[in-house]
Amino acid sequence: MKRTPPKTGISKLDNKLSINTLVVDGNALFKRGYSATKDDYDESGNQNGGVYQFLTVLRKLMEENLYHKVYVFWDGKFSGKMRWEIYKDYKGNRNKDYINGTIPDDLMEVHQREVVFNYLEELYIRQLIDEKVEADDFIAYFCKVKQDVENITVVTSDMDIAQLVSKNVRLYLLHLKKYITPSNFKEQFGYHHENIAVMKILCGDSSDNIKGVKRLGEGTLFKHFPQLIERKVTLDEIINDASKLQEERLQGKKNKLQVLDNIINGTTEGVQGDNLYEINRKLIDLTTPLVSEKALKDVNLLIDSPLSDDRSIKNAYRMLKNDGLDKTLGQSRYETYLLPFKKLMEREKKENIIN
């Protein structure tokens, strides 16, 4: 009798490719779990909710699909600095010392993040942190290098990374608990998946305190340029069409629309001045990720090198006991909790990915 192959979820991508890779925005996944559990303590008075939530969500994702490699990229302490050097108001809506890395650390958050990092080292997870590089840029670079040869699933809650969605790259959005691909992006968000960057360049990004065209919001943008909903559109096309729309209004003896002039001239209330589009492209467009020379060498080494076989699943189980997580899990779950990671290790060994 012919067996039906198991459903892995990867079929939504180009399953002609043989390698399925999971890429995780480490800070996004950790912060969700830590924020939800930072006031929770176990029966021994330990505070490990961020560690437990991170590992639990990661193992769930690994159980849902067959992955051959797993990467976790982290934001460094000064990871906004490269964009701040381009645009001095970058993330200025946060604590003024954010970019300089001088905000007092939440010591428990730092501790739990370090614990997660140590677990991942034992669990055959590739990971990288650089003090000046944002995880977004590492992920964008990885996708740029590997999207033609691997099926990639990116785990995040950051819509900036949605720029990377393509035939072989999908997102798992933590806040929606949903996989996003080119085929369902428009249904979920209301516009074509390849237009995120151009829309943010025009409208700015309030979450990072990046100003856009004066008086231009997404509603106005869709009203005058509905093509954004249906197909890929370039910035030059929007500017040219704004000129045509303004000319048509004048020919029809209608008043000029100031917002169209603002688009044509790149007028902003931000500090970008006449360089609005040039600066916003550098800040927003992940087709040219901001990665330092040192970080570029590190990420290429991480991508291209096999893992050394000096890690131990036994050490990870020992860590679970030391951290009191065996009691949180209960004996029945504790014995199988790390099984998805063990299977990942076995696949890597079998396929000679580990030295």
Class computed from helices, strands and strand pairing: alpha/beta
On the 0 to 100 scale, the average pLDDT is: 89
Termini, distance in Å? 39 Å
Order of helices and strands: EHHEHHEHEEEHHEEHHHHHHHHHH
Tally the helices: 17
What profile does the largest beta sheet have? Answer: 6 strands, mixed
What percent of residues are in strands? 5-15%
- Residue ranges: pLDDT <50 for 5 or more in a row? 1-11
Which percent range fits the helix content?
A: 40-55%
Radius of gyration from the alpha-carbon trace, in angstroms: 23 Å
Q: Going across the major beta sheet, what is the strand order?
A: 3-2-1-4-5-6
Question: What is the general shape?
Answer: elongated
* Number of E-type strands: 8
Describe the structure.
This protein has 355 residues and is an alpha/beta fold. It is 46% helix and 10% strand. It has a 6-stranded mixed beta sheet with strand order 3-2-1-4-5-6, with helices on both faces. Strands 7-8 form a two-stranded antiparallel sheet. The longest helix has 17 residues, at 235-251.
